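thread: overnight batch results

M.L. [08:02]
morning all. the overnight job finished for the chain we discussed friday. pasting input first so we're all looking at the same thing
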Amino acid sequence: MTTPYEPALSASTLRPPLASADAPSMADQLPSIQFGFEDLRAQMAQFTAKFDSFIERGQKLVLEERNQFRLNLAELHEDQRMRKRDIEILHLKSQTHAQALEKEAAEAEEMRAVIGDVEAQRNARQQTRDKLKKQIEETQNMIQQKLEAQEAHARHLEAQARLNVPELEFWQELLCLRIEGAGREDRLKIVYTHLVEKDWEKEAWFELGTASREYEVFHTRPKLPRAAIEKELNTVNEDRDFGAFLKRMRKLLVAGMK
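M.L. [08:03]
and the structure it wrote out:
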């Protein structure tokens, strides 16, 4: 403990003698100064709090605007892709229509030049029409069969999904994962956390394609060897054990982060 400083001589000893008892002291003649340290400290604390709040709101606003920009950009790219596809379809239809018009004009010219061939051409077209009609009927039957098979498969998947909900929740809790959308109806984003002991919030993920019965992996973070991914896909597509697949993919991602 520090001992407070005590001067050897008192202030009265060091003070020069006064000319008279009625003369005012030098301390009485000094102006009174009040610095207001407590008010200044309170104002500085209030300003700091307001400034921190302003910075926090600004960061949140920038993050929201950036996310909205990315969403708008993705929508714009999708819209451009769809418009490009529509233009290509219209261009193809235009070419097909022009070719059909040229063909019809050639046929009309041929019919005017060779009247005798009209009957033979009509018979040939009749045969072609009958053949096409038969092919159309066969194609329609094939399409109907495929649609029925797809509907049956969809009903099976829906029933299986209802059964798999408790199992999925179990794996989500066990493996510290969550499932998000990947921007397309036939893709899912599987996100893992609690991978690194020093940073439990650090994430790793992979993008899973579900468009067909055979699962596909399109993107991962961190990037994984394609051979290792294909090995796991072959396994899950063969045994259909999705929970074990999620567990093995977590191990791959943990290894990729090292």
